[in-house]
Amino acid sequence: MNSNTYVENTTDFCRNLNIDLVKNVFVFDELSSTNIKAKELARHGEQEGTIVISRVQTKGRGRFDRKWESPDGGLYFSVIFRPQVKSDKTTLLSLVAALSICETINSIYAISSTIKWPNDVRINGKKVAGILLESESDGNKLDFVILGMGINLNTHIDQLSPELKSTSTSIVNELKQSVDHHEFLRYLLLTLNKYYTVFLNHDINSILSEWKKHSDALGRNVKIVTSSDEIVGKALDIDESGFLIVVTDSGEHKKVTSGDCFYIE
Ligand code: BTN
Hints:
Elements: H1 3-15, E1 24-31, H2 34-43, E2 50-57, E3 75-81, H3 91-108, E4 113-116, E5 120-123, E6 126-138, E7 141-151, H4 162-165, H5 171-175, H6 181-200, H7 204-214, E8 221-225, E9 230-238, E10 244-248, E11 253-256, E12 260-263
Parallel strand pairs: 1-2
Antiparallel strand pairs: 2-3, 3-7, 4-5, 5-6, 6-7, 8-9, 8-12, 9-10, 10-11
Helix pairs in contact: 3-6, 3-7
The chain binds biotin.
């Protein structure tokens, strides 16, 4: 598909979606990062439910400022949210996104994906999607949240760098056939809409219980690496903010707010 066709088709498709959450859509053939663009738009007052999609990203970013490889074939988009909640509740939105991606994959295709805390979506232990949540506050008041999602949809593994090849997968790689971008996007936005409504209704327990059904982290021996610390123990639970509770060998309960999680077999 040539680049103009991508932009036109995707714009038309999104405008006709008829999903409450989707208020406005900006589609690009190429962007540095959909999160950066969405942040610019949000700073200029763009409303909740604005979606920024790009066919490719030249500077796709992951958690901890890592690179997110974004070749043609993947799905890269960011959504502006303006929930009236305290800033410490926004972490839950990344769980909402991971849950929505996982549910979408498992519902549309005959494959099973799982969530590794906090929000890596994986198939057979390999990463298929990631989420980057960024927020800005005005004093004490949360101004906006940008939820960026990258899904290796029709990405062929040989489009990724050698470092990623052994740890990543894609839907086309698992199914051995390419999938319909639009069908995936529609299902994902519907699911995101469903769980965002649950979030706004403060029904946090429903989100956590669905997340737990899809997560393969709880009950596992884990090592969590943060910028300043390493925590080894058993992943016990997640709390109402989406933080991981780890019980160490000495029986101490530690609450982990962010970091990389490794399973110890
Ligand atoms: C991670 O797993 O480290 C998070 C990856 C998030 C990637 C998505 S792609 C769309 C949006 N734009 C970005 O630059 N990053 C997010």
